[in-house]
């Protein structure tokens, strides 16, 4: 459904890649469908072996799209900053290591000054368990961020993100 929606929204642009934030099921569950569509999976280098194994699984009891239309996994492993552009829009991908996942990517849109992250920060939450290591990681990159887009939350200003990330309880102990 997500692939179909992307093609519907931009019928003039070929869909060639899917960017994967990390390996947790709610962020990697559609990868077999993407592989079946012939999309290149862009992911942290630490996820490659797992995704190779997932792509080879037979799915014989309930065949999925990849079982019905086998294709090889095409993967673009990110170990350092990666820039993707179509000439009109640019996204920078950065690997991030932290307590939530050792193999995560974040996305930064420089023109829009927009940071997209998954599971590290949840706006309004009383506990921000993963931000103590994430905030310094962002600061060392010197990104000019106006807004943060948490994939499981509402878009917030960077100022709100920094305030919540540095003033809320950071552990559940």
Going by helix content, strand content and strand pairing, the class is alpha/beta
Mean pLDDT: 93
**Helix share bin:** 25-40%
General shape: globular
Q: Cα distance, first to last residue?
A: 40 Å
Counting H and I runs of at least 4 residues, what is the number of helices?
Answer: 7
Radius of gyration: 17 Å
**What sequence of helices (H) and strands (E) makes up the elements?**
HEHHEHHEEEEEHEEH
Main sheet: strand order: 4-5-6-7-8-9
Provide the low-confidence segments as ranges. none
The biggest beta sheet is recorded as: 6 strands, mixed
Percentage of residues in DSSP E strands: 15-25%
Total beta strands: 9
Please give a structural write-up.
The protein is of the alpha/beta class and 173 residues long. The protein is built from seven helices and nine strands. 30% of the residues lie in helices and 23% in strands. It has a six-stranded mixed sheet with strand order 4-5-6-7-8-9. The protein has a three-stranded parallel sheet with strand order 1-2-3. The protein is globular. The N and C termini lie far apart (40 Å).
How do the helices and strands line up, and which of them pair or pack?
Elements: H1 2-9, E1 17-19, H2 25-28, H3 31-36, E2 40-44, H4 48-56, H5 65-68, E3 74-78, E4 82-85, E5 90-96, E6 104-109, E7 114-117, H6 131-141, E8 147-150, E9 156-157, H7 158-167
Parallel strand pairs: 1-2, 2-3, 7-8
Antiparallel strand pairs: 4-5, 5-6, 6-7, 8-9
């Amino acid at each position: 459904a997500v692939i179909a929606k992307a093609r519907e929204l931009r019928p003039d642009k070929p869909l060639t890649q899917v960017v994967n934030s990390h390996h947790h099921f709610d962020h990697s569950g559609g990868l077999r469908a993407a592989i079946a569509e012939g999309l290149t999976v862009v992911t942290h280098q630490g996820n490659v072996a797992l995704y190779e194994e997932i792509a080879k699984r037979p799915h014989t009891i309930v065949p999925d799209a990849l079982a019905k239309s086998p294709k090889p996994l095409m993967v673009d492993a990110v170990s350092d900053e990666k820039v993707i552009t179509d000439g009109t829009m640019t996204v920078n991908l950065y690997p991030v290591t932290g307590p939530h996942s050792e193999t995560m990517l974040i996305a930064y849109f420089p023109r829009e000054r927009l940071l997209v992250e998954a599971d590290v920060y949840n706006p309004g939450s009383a506990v921000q368990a993963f931000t103590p290591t994430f905030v310094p990681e962002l600061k060392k990159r010197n990104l000019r961020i106006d807004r943060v887009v948490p994939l499981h939350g509402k878009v917030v200003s960077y100022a709100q993100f920094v305030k919540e990330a540095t003033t809320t309880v950071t552990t559940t102990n």
